């Protein structure tokens, strides 16, 4: 069976908003809920501002299966068709990015989008294993102050007793490379070969904990770094299988990204569209803002405006995800508390702009 071609709808970057409930401190301070969801519509209101997104999820607690089904499940299915995909969690520190993605192993929340994606992936593999041979690899990195850190370094052996690492010993420096046909790859990171859901979960957990404990000041570190968990799915159809999903060989990547806290990207400039360097600025978020601005503005796009992917490691790595060949979903995480209204408004404006970005998903053979 030939892979299903990408539809026009697949090309738009999809944006969903996840509003968490008021939490501990906000309740203690008597904060009021200032974000209103319009019933039955993907719309919300903050003061005099109203926004429409692809999806809006209210304060229902953990990421629901509806959120997974609507936002991430189509991307997981697409991997089997050979389409790359990216899920980005954006928002201020404390807005629920880690909770939503499901990498907060310290919080004991395992219902996030990544665990749900892994589940769906293995269910699908199981249902197809008579027809197709699969190979899965995962990598998990963190970008902090423009340095790429390997979160699976020092990972113990997988439970199957095999060392899943397939990287070369001697640790070459981590480098971002671009192949002659424009594919971005990361060289020098641990690439774990995994066969089971349990092994993949071990990688996610090991990396998440390594991220949280990698610094003496953990909150600061994880709020200032970007974490990227990448699953690579390779498939080869088995001989004599007429009903196989892939004709020969397909390879697709799913990037699951927990971005640094957006409060570091202060908006400046008369048109508010350009992000400038400020105190503690995060180069990746700054560049991401500028990439979104260049791609999301139809006039700039038509004029062939320069897209500054090379301004940061984050945007370089996500070059395929924004304006590239990937299917991309941004989950904008917000606090409903009135004390966070200004940051919430910034997040909603930023996310709203990302909706204008067009990608060109292609099958990766
Ligand atoms: P971020 O990663 O954006 O800094 P976290 O995911 O760490 O934010 O969330 C901040 C706090 O809010 C954590 O204590 C987390 O458990 C809590 N929290 C976040 N989202 C939710 C939610 N949907 N329901 C309940 N608690 C949440
Ligand atoms: Mg976090």
TrEMBL record:
Q: What domain of life does the native source organism fall in? A: Eukaryota
Name-wise, this protein is: Uncharacterized protein
């Amino acid at each position: 069976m030939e892979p299903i071609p990408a539809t026009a709808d697949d090309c738009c970057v999809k944006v969903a908003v996840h509003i968490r409930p008021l939490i501990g401190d906000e309740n203690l301070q008597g904060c009021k809920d200032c974000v209103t969801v319009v019933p039955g519509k993907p719309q919300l209101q903050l003061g005099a501002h109203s926004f429409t997104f692809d999806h809006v999820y209210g304060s229902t607690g953990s990421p629901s299966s509806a959120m997974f089904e609507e936002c991430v499940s189509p991307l997981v299915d697409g991997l089997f068709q050979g389409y790359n995909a990216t899920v980005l969690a954006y928002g201020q520190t404390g807005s629920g990015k880690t909770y939503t993605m499901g990498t907060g192993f310290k919080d004991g929340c395992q219902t996030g989008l990544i665990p749900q994606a892994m589940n769906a992936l293995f269910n699908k593999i199981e249902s197809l294993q008579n027809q197709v041979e699969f190979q899965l690899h995962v990598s998990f990195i963190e970008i902090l102050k423009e340095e790429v850190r390997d979160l699976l370094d020092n990972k113990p052996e997988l439970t199957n007793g095999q060392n899943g690492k397939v990287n070369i010993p001697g640790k070459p420096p981590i480098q971002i490379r671009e192949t002659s046909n424009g594919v971005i790859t990361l060289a020098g990171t641990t690439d774990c070969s995994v066969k089971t859901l349990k092994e993949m979960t071990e990688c996610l957990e090991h990396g998440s904990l390594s991220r949280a404990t990698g610094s003496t000041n953990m909150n600061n570190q994880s709020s200032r770094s970007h974490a990227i968990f990448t699953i690579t799915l390779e498939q080869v159809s088995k001989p004599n299988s007429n009903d196989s999903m892939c004709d020969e060989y397909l390879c697709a990547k799913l990037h699951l990204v927990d971005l640094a806290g957006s409060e570091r990207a202060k908006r400046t400039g008369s048109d508010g569209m350009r992000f400038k360097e400020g105190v503690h600025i995060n180069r990746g978020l700054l560049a991401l803002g500028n990439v979104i601005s260049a791609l999301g503005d139809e006039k700039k796009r038509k004029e062939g405006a320069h897209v500054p992917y090379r301004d940061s490691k984050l945007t370089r790595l996500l070059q395929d995800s924004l304006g590239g060949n990937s299917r991309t979903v941004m989950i904008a995480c917000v606090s409903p508390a009135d004390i966070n209204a200004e940051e919430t408004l910034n997040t909603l404006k930023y996310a709203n702009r990302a909706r204008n970005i067009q990608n060109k998903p292609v099958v990766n053979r």
